[in-house]
Amino acid sequence: MKTRTILRHSLTHLFIIGLGVFMIYPVIWMIVSSFKPNNMIFSDPGIIPKAVTIENYLTGWKGYAGTSFGTFFVNSLTMCAVAIVGNVISCSMAGYAFARLKFAGRGLWFAVMMATLMLPGHVTLVPRYILFNTFGWVGSYLPILVPKFLATDAFFVFLLVQFMRSLPKEVEEAAIIDGCGKIGVFLRIIIPLASPALVTTALFTFLWTWDDFFNHLLYLTSPDTFTVSRALRTFVGDAGAVNNWGGALAMSTLSIIPAFILFFSLQKYFVQGITTTGIKG
Amino acid sequence: MTAFESLHDETKASFWVRKTSGMIKFLRRNAVAYLFLAPWLLGFLVLTLYPMIYSLGLSFTNYDFTQPNATQWIGLGNYLKMFGSVFGLSEFTASTGELMRVDPYYMKSLSVTLTYVFVSVPLKLIFALAVAMLMNQKLRGVPFYRAVYYIPTLLGGSVAIAVLWRKLFEKDGLINGVLTGVGFTDLPGWITNPNYALGTLILLTVWQFGSSMIIFLAGLKQIPQEYYEAASVDGANKVRQFFSITIPLLSPVILFNLVIQIIGAFQAFTQAYIIGGGKGGVLNSTLFYTLHLYIQGWTYHEMGYASAMAWVLLLIIAVITAVVFRSSSWWVSYGVGE
Questions:
Q1: What is the pLDDT of residues B3-25, one digit of tens each?
Q2: What's the ipTM?
Q3: What's the mean pLDDT when you consider all of chain B?
Q4: A135 assigned to some structural domain
Q5: How far is B171 from chain A (nearest CA, A)?
Q6: Which of A231, B33, B87, B322 could form a disulfide with A103 if both were Cys (CB 3.0 to 4.6 A apart)?
Q7: Cβ distance of A27 and B55 shorter than 8 Å
């Protein structure tokens, strides 16, 4: 009986590992191939390269239109940093109001917020574009960043409401007795206690802003403002006929590094974010 | 009469006093809350509600971004442009007297998208559930495995992976290299063949089952082990246990995943855009709805038409979501008592 269980477990392990390797094989292949000489990339499906070179990284890094990938990375990182600040401030404020404050119209606004969770963004697309264009914002980061300061990502508002509702009320009540106002409670008690949910918010804001392509395609017009995702697309071109596939794979590999680092250092926040809101993906 | 009038004046005055003090009271009671709500409320009004109404209005016009002054009201013209082919039309006279052509690609984009949604979502959920059940055993290393299986989801939405995918499925790409290695010959270029192009995109979506898997795993952990023990004492085999215990108790989670994934799948864009090279692929075989909308609105500047398309998309998603919720009353059970 005992040996049978061990055998069964070993088979399950083997199966899970086998399927897992199969699943991430494309990603591993991309990373390995980025170190292969350009002419060997597609003739060689194996993951042990016959020759190793960093040539692809050097040529790819040069970018195009006189703008290097260094600029694209700085652009993406700056955009993500500002987006995180915006989402953390605006979504935690809205989350606190919905989770902890009583006010006229709360039920209505909460229902509205929940409805926007399911709303496809395309119905607001054209007017937003027209609006941002009249402000003269097209071509800048403002159309992408200003909405973050206005809590338009309802997912995070919902996440923070859920989290703040689960916090114990006692500390808050004690603070109120000690003369702390609502703003004080928010800054001194709610924010510190909600920090795990705020980390989740920051994490997914980073990933979504980093990976976002559609808004960058709409609003970024000149190469020196391009983000990594927008730049990669132009780098590959319409027909995908670029000769420098090695460079494209090398830059693609670099572009997924931040996601990897965040994922493996902050794994528990991922699970929390996904299970409380069913985050898309 | 005069007495009544003066009385009336008095009540009027006191009414205003009461009203003002009531407003002050209202503000005192709610001001702080609305202060916290202000960014969201402003965002909702300016960036969601107003644009929604605006785009509904635009959907009845021929608004062209490059010549906004030439905008005319065309009634249901844009909607007929979408669905005209259903009535056998190829062109029609709009209310302005102008001849309008029915969009020859709209129905194609709709059918591509519906196929994509109704094939990829069930496959993804079945896969996610199967893997979640595999992981829901007392095994060492499950957190590590879970992380590995989540990697495709972590990266899948990026341009990098779309670029990779296009390379993998090309005629002389990795997939064909491997298949040739195991003896296949005469292989197609998967991306460039209209019969298979959508399939590669579906595969790319199913590959990203990580989020659904994690949600299923959390749901599976909630099912008490005793149920399974009791069932196996009663002689129910694993298959029977799956259909009588796992599926019913997991049904709220299945519903949740289903709705989230359907809504997401209808809006898929990046992967189709990159893999199709900014167009709908060979013979428009990967012309996703949102891609078509983008091309109409931003390549041809037909933003009135794009707005109408967006509203139809909203309606389609709303109807399908409503149908799923309605149907849930006979397949979703909340709690054991039911």
A1: 555 556 656 667 777 777 877 88
A2: 0.91
A3: 89
A4: yes
A5: 10
A6: B33
A7: no
